[in-house]
Amino acid sequence: MSSWLTIASVLPLPNSHHRIPLLGFGVYQSHGPTCVQSCLKALKAGYRHIDTAQYYGNEAQVGRALRESKIPRLDVFITTKILSPGIDVDATYARIIDSVQKLDGLDGYVDLFLIHSPNGGKESRKLMWLALEKAKEVGKVHDIGVSNYGKQHIEEMKEFATVFPPAVNQIELHPWCQQREIVEYCHSQGIVIEAYCPLVRNQKAHDKTLVSLAEKYNKSTGQILIRYCLQKGWVPLPKSDTPGRITNNADAYGFVIDRKDMDILDGLDQGARGAIVQAVNN
C-alpha cells in the first residue's frame, strides 16, 4: 500500500460511503488571519483535509478559508470536535450545529465530528455521542468519532450507541508514543486511527536517529515523521503556520522508508512517557 500513496490517497470509514483523506492539516493554536492564510496555503499545497475543534477557537477562520479557496465543498474534508456537552442532548446538539454553521454556513455540513476527550465522565460522553448521532441522522454531520479514547471508553459506548463503532479515534501518535494497545484494538474494530502531534511539536527535530534517517533519505525530519505515520496506516495531522513547512510537510510521497528503518523508528517507543499531550487510558 505505502509505495503507491499520493497526497490524494483516502481511506474508507467504517459503515460509511465516505472516505477520509490520508493526510490532514491541523490548526491547533492558529488564530485570526494567520489561520486563514495557513489553511489557504495548505489547500494550495494539495491538502484536502483540515482538522479543527471548538476548543481551538478558529472554526470560523477555517470556514472563511474554505470559502475563499474556491475549491468545491465536496472536495475538502472538514473535521471538528466537541469538548463538553450542554445540559441535555438538545443543548449539546445546538453546540454541534453552531460549529457546522461557523464552518460551512446555515445549509452546510461537517464531514467528521469527534468527541474531543473522554475526560468529562461517562454522562458527558453519552450526551455528546447521542447529540452527534442526532446530527448525523439529519445530515449535518456525515460521520462521527472520538479522540483520546482508550479501549474502555469505546467499549462503554456499546451501552448507549446506535452508531458503532466510532468512525475514527484521534490520538497522539509518533515514534516516541505509539500507543500500541489502543491502535491494535481500533484496528480490530475497523476504526480509523488519526495521529495528532505527528511532528512532536518539533521537540525531536535534533534527535540523532531521526536526523540520520532524514539525511539517508534526503528528506526533512518532518517528512520522515509524516511518512512513518502514513506507512503505519494512520492519518497524520501535521500543523504549521510557516508557509514553507506547510508545503514541505505535504511532500511525504515519492519515497518509502524501508522495513529496517521502520523497525528503527518503532524502537524509539517510550510508551505513555513519550506523550507530549496525553496517552489514552485503556
Helices and strands in order:
Blueprint: E1 10-12, E2 19-21, E3 25-26, H1 32-45, E4 49-51, H2 59-69, E5 77-82, H3 89-104, E6 110-115, H4 122-137, E7 141-147, H5 151-156, E8 168-172, H6 180-189, E9 192-196, H7 208-217, H8 221-232, E10 235-236, H9 243-249, H10 259-266
Parallel strand pairs: 3-4, 4-5, 5-6, 6-7, 7-8, 8-9, 9-10
Antiparallel strand pairs: 1-2
Helix pairs in contact: 1-2, 2-3, 3-4, 7-8
Provide keyphrases for this structure.
282 residues, alpha/beta, 8-stranded parallel beta sheet, two-stranded antiparallel sheet, 10 helices, 39% helix
Structure description:
This protein is an alpha/beta fold. It is 39% helix and 15% strand. The protein has helices at 32-45, 59-69, 89-104, 122-137, 151-156, 180-189, 208-217, 221-232, 243-249, 259-266; strands at 10-12, 19-21, 25-26, 49-51, 77-82, 110-115, 141-147, 168-172, 192-196, 235-236. An eight-stranded parallel sheet has the order 3-4-5-6-7-8-9-10. Strands 1-2 form a two-stranded antiparallel ribbon. Strand 1 (10-12) and strand 2 (19-21) form a beta hairpin. Helix 1 crosses helix 2. The longest helix has 16 residues, at 89-104. The two termini are 29 Å apart. The relative contact order is 0.14.
